[in-house]
Write a structure and sequence with these properties.
Blueprint (H helix, E strand, L loop, with lengths): L6 H36 L1 H21 L1 H16 L2 H21 L1 H5 L1 H7 L4 H14 L3 H16 L4 H23 L9 H25 L17 H35 L1 H37 L3 H28 L1 H6 L9 H34 L4 H25 L3 H27 L4
Helix pairs in contact: 1-2, 1-9, 1-12, 1-13, 2-7, 2-11, 2-12, 3-4, 3-8, 3-11, 3-12, 4-8, 4-11, 6-7, 7-10, 8-10, 9-10, 11-12, 11-16, 11-17, 12-13, 12-15, 13-15, 15-17, 16-17
Length: about 450
């Protein structure tokens, strides 16, 4: 039985796991930030297309990454029980499901122009967005496999490598994206296609490095992760699918909420969509800190749940909430005081549209401060619930909060109350508030008293 840990010990353990994961998530987002900045210099229509394309890719990626997120608590609980065979089985079948998912959904990327036109997007934006997605779609499989390896390594508390590989990818992406988009250093000018090619190269390179580390590091060889990789393990595959599909659908419900606001912002105008994309990039970077803390909470909760240690589980959960809340307060202050300088980093201030994008984007960041705590609360609650392998009911909570409450509220406030983009973001606040409240109640009401 693990001794009861002090609050400071829980905080140290959570930060040791969570900070590298948060850093890796931020670096992952920085890949898209680089694309946004480069395309913002290139042209407003191209920026809007890549913002929309990145959102579409992310929605599908979130659904598929449910299998990767399932690997983390399964491996953590297996380690808590001392079952090393289950560690390998869960991770391997998570990779199988990721490959099948990425291959099966690629047609959505190929036919994306028709889909976007049917959803009311402007023809020039839809055409460029499809050009981006037809290339970027090939990166779905390596991106999902990287997520599985990240979950596997995080559950083994090997988070430093995840951070440094992702940080290195940011610099390589910056070196590739600019010349491919603008046609520098002897390369052809490829616009949005250049951005997609740079991202694809980075995803493949990251996968190779992570796989070599997970498979060859002496201290991890005992798990034999890739031994007889081609052999199916139907029991483990079913277990990962059963746990991972609700996680993916939960993420899809939330990502769909944000994607719906992007589509509705596109109805308002291209300038507004570009500003919305910048504001979302900024808030997403901050959100990744909470995702890292949530992942650390999943690992720690999974370990304690595997050992039936409810005292440490509850105390660790409280400390995770405290850390996330403290980070959220700092972020709120930043969004309220530094909005214009932050948005200004993403645009060419000499462009004719720059003042409008700057003003609109700064206004949206003020609304981002309003939903920061709710967004942090819901993702942390999901991480805690995944640690105890509770994913089905949270899926329904997310669906109701985002699609029966958040999306209708955003539409009514934007187009019936004539609040425009501000109304869309207020709808986000409402949906996230309901999700955070219900999910936190779900976790704390189900954990045995310490």
């Amino acid at each position: 039985m693990t001794p009861v840990l002090s609050r400071s010990a829980h905080i140290r353990a959570l930060l040791a796991l969570g900070l590298p994961l948060a850093g890796s998530h931020i670096a992952q987002m920085a890949l898209h930030v680089v694309d946004t900045i480069v395309l913002g210099w290139y042209g407003v229509t191209e920026l809007a297309a890549v913002v929309l394309g990145g959102s579409c890719f992310f929605v599908i990626f979130v659904l598929g990454s449910g299998f990767a997120h399932a690997v983390m608590p399964m491996v953590a609980q297996a380690l808590g029980r001392g079952d090393e065979t289950e560690v390998r089985r869960a991770a391997r079948m998570g990779m199988w499901l990721s490959i099948l998912f990425g291959a099966g959904l690629y047609p959505l990327f190929w036919w994306s122009e028709s889909i976007l036109l049917a959803l009311g997007q402007k023809p020039d934006v839809a055409r460029l967005c499809a050009e981006f997605l037809r290339i970027a779609g090939f990166g779905m499989i390596p991106a999902l496999l990287v997520m599985v390896l990240k979950s596997y390594l995080a559950a083994l508390e090997r988070t430093q490598v995840v951070l440094w590989v992702t940080v290195g990818a940011v610099f390589v992406n910056a070196a590739l994206c600019y010349p491919l988009v603008f046609g520098r250093w002897g390369l052809p000018e490829m616009g949005v296609a250049g951005s997609a090619i740079a991202t694809l190269i980075i995803q493949i390179l990251t996968l190779v490095i992570m796989a070599l580390y997970a498979g060859l590091l002496p201290s991890l060889r005992r798990f034999r992760l890739f031994q007889r990789f081609w052999r199916p393990d139907w029991h483990a595959l079913a277990a990962v699918f059963k746990l991972g599909m609700p996680i993916g659908l939960t993420g899809l419900a939330e990502a769909g909420l944000f994607q719906a606001t992007a589509l509705m912002m596109g109805w308002i105008g291209t300038i507004e969509l570009a500003a919305h994309g910048i504001a979302m990039q900024v808030t997403s970077i901050g959100f990744m800190i909470h995702v890292g803390i949530s992942s650390a909470a999943t690992v720690r909760t999974g370990r304690f749940a595997g050992g039936q240690d409810w005292t440490n589980l509850r105390r660790g959960g409280v400390m995770a909430v405290a850390i996330s809340a403290a980070v959220g307060v700092v972020q709120i202050v930043i969004y309220l005081t530094l909005a214009q300088p932050i948005v200004g980093l993403f645009i060419d201030r000499s462009a004719a549209e720059a003042p409008m994008i700057l003003t609109y984007g700064s206004m949206l960041l003020a609304y981002a401060a309003a939903f920061q705590m709710m967004d942090a609360g819901q993702v942390l609650a999901l991480g805690l619930l995944r640690g105890v392998q509770d994913t089905r009911v949270p899926m329904w909570i997310a669906a109701v909060s985002y699609w029966l409450i958040g999306v209708p509220a955003a539409y009514l406030l934007a187009f019936r109350a004539d609040l425009g983009g501000a109304g869309l973001w207020l709808g986000l606040v409402i949906g996230l508030f309901f999700a955070a409240t219900a999910l936190m109640h779900r976790f704390w009401s189900r954990i045995p008293a310490a």
